[in-house]
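## retry 2 of 3
previous attempt timed out at serialization; input unchanged, resubmitting
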Amino acid sequence: MISTRVAALLFVLSILLLIASQLMIKWRFNALGLQGEQGHGLWLTVRHAVVDIGLWTAGLLVLAGAAMWYAAMTKLPLSFMLPAAAIVSPLVALGAHVTLGERVTTAEFVLIGLIAILVGAFGLIQAQK
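## retry succeeded, writing output
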């Protein structure tokens, strides 16, 4: 059995790997020209995904993050983990803005952050019941 300290570290790492994998998938799709409404179709996207090392790496990040999440779940309560995971959305939006140059207005970022805060607060309230 793992300690609470190790579980907390695994939880944080799982969140970071999720964020990194989402940004990496978006980056690779952009680089491969698979973004937007260009109607590439499922098979072209799958063909690119099968041969692109960046997408394979992103997939491995997803798997590693999931393994860490489940390991953390053995020690940490879900009533804590799920609300705390609400931090993913604002961090992905910020990461997309900073690393991929995606446009995120101040109002959009404030609303994303507000939703994450409210979800987290709701989860904490529920956890205390």
